[in-house]
Amino acid sequence: MTFNKKVAIIYQSQIPPDRNGIIKPMKPGGYSDSGADIAYSLQRQHIDIITPVDNPQIENDYDWVFPDTIEGIQRAIEKGANLIWLNTVLYEGHPVETFIDNGIAVVGQIPQNVDVFDDKLVTNELLSKQHLPIPKSIIITDENVNHFKLTFPFSVVAKPVRGRGSQGVSFVRTQEELTRILKDMFASNDYGNVLYVEEFLSGEEVTITVMPPGEYIINHQSVLKENYWSLPPVKRFNHENGIAPYNGTVAVINNSEVLSDERLKSEIVQQLCRDCETAARLVYAKAPIRIDCRSNADVKYFLFDLNMKPNMTGASRPHRQDQDSLTALAARKIGWDFDALVLNMLYQYWQK
């Protein structure tokens, strides 16, 4: 498949605006690490990569990526880029929208959709209306934090409405502990004035990456995928206090693996993949999304976290060989190394 676009990767340079008092925390470095992994991978596959400096150093993330500001994107275009890879947190009003409206090609989601579906409450309500399995939950605000009543038993999980990975997520065993944790979260103002609490699912956790429809290269053959489709589910283990640790703390290759071939063929896993593919269609995904799922004591799986911008680090640069993301791990099962994954993602670019 020939490719003649000139590609620039953008990273998150500033915290997104709050939405109705809800704050999404920013990852240190703003995904510049994965952006550099992607750029380096594409460059060594002879894709024309536009970088901020003429001779990017392999170990310097910021040599490979542009900030997601009007000035940063404009600079990439002035240097020759005609495709922007949106390796950043998007939202309605993001600077890249102007360039999308003017016809620039992009890899990534529609900013307005990310703004809507990054809100876990909105997304869970949407999925629930389509009869997809969602954990029980309750909204907590700074006004009702002293007198809310749970409709499900402990243990529970307290988390931000617009979260990022497992940051700010707490496993809670008692009402006293929950009250303290919620008050601490509100006092920090890291997540805004709305939080939520959901039932704790005690069973196996798996995460499923869903790819958008399009033409892909799989096993050296061009394959047309007319519908959303799943990469093989990845099992998470070695949880810390009931929660999978943030991948910036523990590399996912140390606590995650693709399910066995026998499990992948099971009807329960196949149905879970279909549920995740339905969810991807409902949020109009234009690029990979990742959905975290977990089973309860009765081995029924629930979709508990839909990630519109999954982490996309990978083992491309020599000093980052242990940095495959959950999506990269899943991709290896279908014969894609990180290079093949990002190249196939690139082929799914879109423009207005």
Write up what this structure looks like.
Pfam families: Dala_Dala_lig_C. Keywords: ATP-binding, Ligase, Nucleotide-binding. Belongs to the D-alanine--D-alanine ligase family. With 352 residues, this protein is of the alpha+beta class. It folds into 3 domains: 103 residues, no CATH class; 64 residues, ATP-grasp fold, A domain (Dna Ligase, domain 1, 2-Layer Sandwich), CATH 3.30.1490; 125 residues, D-amino Acid Aminotransferase, Chain A, domain 1 (2-Layer Sandwich). It contains 10 helices and 17 strands. The strands form 4 sheets. Strands 10, 13, 14, 15, 16 and 17 form a 6-stranded antiparallel beta sheet that branches. Strands 1, 2, 3, 4 and 5 form a 5-stranded parallel beta sheet that branches. It has a 4-stranded antiparallel beta sheet with strand order 6-9-7-8, covered by helices on one side. It starts with 5 loop residues before the first strand and ends in a 5-residue tail after the last helix. The mean pLDDT is 95.
